[in-house]
Amino acid sequence: MPRLLLPLLLTLLTPFFSAGGAPILNQRELLETQNFWDNRDFDWFEDNIPFLDTPDEEINTTYYYRWELVSKHLTYGSPTTGYLWTEFINRPFWSGAYGAIACPSGHQFYEARWLRNPRYVRDYARYWFRTPGAQPHRYSAWMADSAWATHLVHPNKTFLADLLPDLRKNLDTWTSRSWVKEAGMFWQVGHDDGMEFNIASRQTKNILSGAPSYRPSFNSYMWADLQALARMSHLLGDHDAASSYEKQAGALKDTMQKQLWDPRRQFFLAMFRDDEEDGEGNRIKKNTRIYETGKFAGSPHGREEAGYVPWSFNLPDPGYEEAWKFLMDPAYFFADFGPVTVERNDPLFLLKNSCCWWSGQSWPFATTQTLKGLANLLHNYSQDHVSREDYYKLLHIYARSHRKNGKPYIAEALHPDTGSWDHHDFYNRSEHYFHSGFVDLIITGLCGLLLEDKDTLTVDPLIPEDWDYFALDEVPYRGHLVSLVWDRDGSRYDKGAGLHLFANGKKIASSPTLGKLTAPLPAAREVALHPRSEINYAVNNDGTWFPRYRASHTGPKSSLSFIHDGNTAWYDLHPPLRWTSEGSPNDKDWVEVDFGTLRPITTLKAYLLDDGNDQPVTVPTAIQFEYSVKADGPWQPVPFAPGASTTISGGKPFIVQHPGFKAQRIRVTLTNHANQRSGLTELEAWGPREGPYLPAPAPAGNIAFNSDPKGGGFPKASASFHDRYGGVPSSAHDGIIIYRATPTNRWTCYGSPDQHTDWFALDFGEKKTFSRAILHLYDDRGGVQAPKKYTLQHWTGQDWLEIPGQQKTPINPKGSAANTVTFPPVESQKLRVVFTHIGKGHTRSGLTEIEV
């Protein structure tokens, strides 16, 4: 990886942590031992993650795979937002701005807080309240608790003080939406709790999103948020507010333990908010727990895995531990690839060959919560229903569940008896699904790092007694890098026999036996706030005219839109979220970004693809960066520093740094192998922020553009048909180009009764002369795809006539790309595009933008 200077983002890590000694583990060797990597940027992993070594290779592999998963979904949304994480790599229509979804955010926060650079997770916390289009209330989440959990690892009072008003408002919003004063609890439907088709909703006429209920899960999240807000308020000196939150949390807990706990079934159960009736006429009474009324009234079952969620936050008082006796029993929750989400003998237990059923399938989302709760139970409660051996057994099952065809993988849900992801693993959606946790379970559970807001380091490992060794190395914690080592005879790590704790490379405590161990830490250093003074000028997730991309050639099943989406580590061949020059006749191919104005640049990164020697796309033999200070100015080379490495490797960024220059355009030229072509998953151009970021305005001359297309003025758009999901004609000439499913900013004719053709038209309000049109074709690779062909027509005043002499680039329509049509000048008041659909069943055509 060539570097002219220390990499920008890594340089900024220097003040975050106290200087330490050499790592205990050979970190590069541990990375190279694994053979699954798509993201081979080992420098990033070495600079960011804690390292693990255990005798359990399944756990080791899954641990490092889960860090790659974190990197795959890490996304730079915009210069204003910074970083966030996606759940689905394809950013489906139900996701918020830049693809984030609130439902798994708690799991994502708990994972990402262990990255050494706290900027990532702090940006994500801000995202939910500062970024237009974020949807913090579309699904249940534990936002305040997540912020406090982050603070325990990376303490900073200034950051909490800045975020606290947003977190309070977030709780107020949930209270106004879901609090029922008479019940003393919050209600939620299973669908919006992230648990669709559940045994409560299936007893109503709306089996997907019915049954508003007082759920153990959602009320636990709200209790955890109240607790976190109380702690933050105390820390910041607002003791009156803290007392109020503590009082609310106490009352909520008391009500949950009285109302949701069933002494007969010895479990926390959902309680219906309303009277309900199913399709057969069976009736459920409001304020009754599951199966107390209705078709299955009196059933001894009804236990859902969500009943363990209260322990994920240490909510229950002592006395409810009997619930855990069901966990390891195959007649209830235990399975070879479980736990199951509903107890086995439940009358509504069902394993379904379709998504998204929470009636028995094993869901990693829930498994994470159960393992978190089990670790808390073993660390903080006295009971004899489950053991440390049980924790390890379930953790090992969970680790080996992360496999498909023998390789590390995770999708949405799996069969609890076979481990198959079938029917819960959808192409261009479920791949490497980030809806759960694992890393945090290893650090706080298996290795037993117990977090406190004070200057101590306490560990209580849950490892098997017969393990002779394990090590967790360079964990960021309270401004220090801490490590813990168990080495029975001292022969593996050369640090002496026993259990040892280290802070910044210095041993601070030892014990000859494996067990709970506490040591004082040096005073906590506030982990500095990232200045966010450097931004990536090349990202464009908002669809603005600039920055704008061009390429010498764009291969099939690839798009330029994927190399400016802020997602840097998706090197996977499937789905192909990338740009390639596959099929190019050129010896060299190039990609160009135009910022629309001069931007200060210090760091350029090209994230290079390498699908292998037997594939059409591999790394280039040479790479050149050039810049231009004008839209039509000459190109000048960006120089390499003397002695800088020019090694080119795929699955990682090729980085060029410079003391600083200004450019309006950047071009990357890739020299292709003789029989293969090149490609990128992302292009970044970093430089210092110069005041508030604003994209450059669109150039004049586009007569199709209407800054307020819904306001009634010209130009006006119309169509033969538009879909019912928001894809309306007015969205296709507003200057915003979005090829992704979200946000919805497009016109499509999906659902049109005409299987052959549909049209889109513009009325300029008066006669205009034009000779070129650019069609940005929307293609979701499903119901809307690039048309088989299209043609342009103009209005004569009486008829539509095809415009003669149309020259199209590319010749064949290409989805998720700009399709340019030139022709001799035409004078007309109206322009129409007629699309001939590709002819695959219900597939229709669409535009995200048209320029004329």
Map the helices and strands.
Layout: H1 8-11, H2 27-33, H3 42-48, E1 51-53, H4 57-73, E2 74-78, E3 82-85, H5 105-112, H6 119-130, H7 143-153, H8 157-178, E4 179-180, E5 185-186, E6 213-214, H9 216-235, H10 239-259, E7 261-262, E8 267-268, E9 271-272, E10 276-277, E11 283-284, H11 309-312, H12 364-380, H13 388-401, E12 403-404, E13 407-408, H14 439-446, E14 449-450, E15 456-459, E16 469-477, E17 480-487, E18 498-503, E19 506-511, E20 517-520, E21 534-536, E22 548-551, E23 579-580, E24 588-608, E25 622-628, E26 636-637, E27 652-671, E28 679-688, E29 716-719, E30 747-748, E31 757-777, E32 789-795, E33 800-802, E34 807-809, E35 817-836, E36 846-851
How is this structure best described in words?
This protein is 20% helix and 24% strand. With 852 residues, the chain is an alpha+beta fold. Strands 21, 22, 23, 24, 25, 26, 27 and 28 form an 8-stranded antiparallel sheet that branches. Strands 29, 30, 31, 32, 33, 34, 35 and 36 form an 8-stranded antiparallel sheet that branches. The two termini are 43 Å apart. The N terminus is likely disordered.
Structural class: alpha+beta
Number of helices: 14
Radius of gyration: 28 Å
Q: Provide the number of structural domains.
A: 4
* Helix percentage range: 10-25%
How is this structure best summarized?
This protein is α+β, with helices and mostly antiparallel strands. It is 20% helix and 24% strand. The protein is globular and about 85 Å long.
